[in-house]
Structures are given as structure tokens and as C-alpha cells.
């Protein structure tokens, strides 16, 4: 089935095609087996007869990964070494390759080094849950390293740095390159690659509460405050703006998503300008996403939309729903 998407303004007015029609659905119903769709692959039941649901459904994804097992193993850890080894194994299984896990230590008032085990375990479990829903194949660039670390102080409590995704350069051995020191390593395009480093810092529910209640961050229910930073940063893994010398993931769906977000964001900026200038606009549909989405450019716009649909299920914000629908059309419905 060919997928065609018109990403411009007409997209809202029915410019999306490529969904299954009634005849397609009827034919699948007659076949009596689960078809090769995203949801069925996630539940590991492609080709099974209807009603033949295994006890593993909902827990395993492609490749037979048992995500509930990973969460239990993380929960069981109580010391630094055991936790680091467990995380290295967990994310190697999920990502299909070894990935460094860096755990930064902090110092208390007496100068003693401490590790916030509970915060690291919480973030890790949220990442496992996110990968169960959104496989790493959706990433624009591969995740090369995960850092759990100390909180970097911002201008005030609401602006603390709770996490980040930074794009870095790596050689063929997986070692990170320093642009200034290793510039010679960039002369041969095949000798380097682009990857992301994900950092998740100490959880501060009070700070999250301030950021959400003041509109700096997107909507989030109170019970989801603890996972807000992890979901926001995961949104950055799915979408970024730069294509470093053609190193962006060449998967056709990722390219279409990239183009679609650029067009949706362009519409959002136009509507935002009309909103600020007090021009005629349907404010009930538009609904400003967050101050961070407005000030941070297209990447923060996407991460805030991603965060809101994950953490605030009853959202009715038009552009959040447009981004979510685009994601589901491209990644989940084919």
C-alpha cells in the first residue's frame, strides 16, 4: 500500500491518505490471522490465528524482548556495580549493540561521594517503557551513550537542567571525537559517524511542578511528573533538525516524519505570530503548547508535543494532536 502524505495546511483538512479502507480491513478480518502491522509485531503475534493470544502478549516486542523482566531486574539492584552491569545488559539487548552507561557521582555537604540510585533506576525504567512503545529504529541518529548524572543548575529552580540530548561525532571504534583535536579524522567521510548522547539528571518533582504550572513546560498530570524529563528527551531522539553530511538515518519513514514535522512547525509559527499579534485565530483549537516550545525552536517544539501526548492523555491541543497523528500514520499504522 503506497503512503502519500500532504504535509501542508491542507493536511488538517483531509490531506492525508494511505490509511486502510473498509475493503482492506474486511479482507484482513476474513483471513483469520494477525497481519504484519506495527501493533501485531509489538505483541509478537504476526501470523497467529485470531484468539491464539500468548501469555507474553503486551510484554514482548520484535525479537522476543521481555520488557517487564528488564524492569524487574533494574528494581532488584541496590548498589552501584550491580546497577551499572544491569543497565549495560538491558540496553545492549534493547538496542542490539553495546552502549556505554556512565553514572556520575555527586558529593554531599561533607564531601562524600554519593549516587542517587533511586533516581537512576526510575529514569532507566522509564526508558525501558519508552523503548517498548517506540523502538530505536525510529531514532534519527543512533543512541551511542547514556549518562545518569548530577543536576546542572539553571537560572532558577524551574529552569534546572533535568536532561539533555547532544549530538556527537564518533570514530569507527565507537570512541567520541573532539572536532578541534581530531579534525583530521573528519576528512574521510567513512571514518566517522553521528550519534546521540542522552543525559538524565536528578529528579526534582518540586521543580517539575513549577515548570508545568507556570506554563514553561507542556501539560503533564501530577502522577507523570517523574517521567516528564525522560519522555521529553526521548522526543529529541526521535526528531532533530540537522543532517550532518548525509549521516541522518536514511529510513524512508524517518525522512517523511522529518519533512512532516518541519511543515507542521512552520504552520505553528504562523499561528503563533497571529496569536501574539491578536489577529483572528481559533484560540480554542490553537492553544499555545508551552513557553519552552515557543522559545526553543523546532526541536523543543517536537519534544514538548511528544511529552504532552505521553504525559497528558486528555490533551486537546491542535498541534500536539497533529504531531501525534503524523507519528502514528508514518510509524504505527503500516
Structural descriptors:
single chain, 334 residues, alpha/beta, 5-stranded mixed β-sheet, two-stranded antiparallel sheet, 12 helices, globular, disordered N terminus
Oligomeric state, counting identical vs distinct chains: single chain
How many β strands by DSSP? 7
User: Which residue ranges are poorly predicted, with pLDDT under 50 across at least 5 consecutive positions?
Assistant: 1-32, 38-43, 49-62, 153-159
- Largest beta sheet, briefly? 5 strands, mixed
Ends distance: 9 Å
In terms of DSSP E residues, the strand content is 5-15%
Written as H for each helix and E for each strand, in order along the chain, the element string is HHHHEEEHEEEEHHHHHHH
| Rg from alpha-carbon coordinates | 21 Å
Category by helix and strand content:
alpha/beta
Give average pLDDT, whole number: 76
The neighbouring-strand order within the major sheet is 1-4-7-5-6
User: Percent of residues in helical segments?
Assistant: 40-55%
User: How many DSSP helices?
Assistant: 12
Overall geometry comes to globular
Quick overview:
The protein is an alpha/beta fold.
What do these coordinates show?
With 334 residues, the chain is of the alpha/beta class. Helix content is 42%, strand content 10%. α3 runs antiparallel to α5, α8 packs antiparallel against α12 (318-332) and α11 (297-311) crosses α12 (318-332). The longest helix is centred in the last third of the chain and has 25 residues, at 252-276. The chain is globular, with a radius of gyration of 21 Å. The chain starts with 21 loop residues before the first helix and ends with a helix.
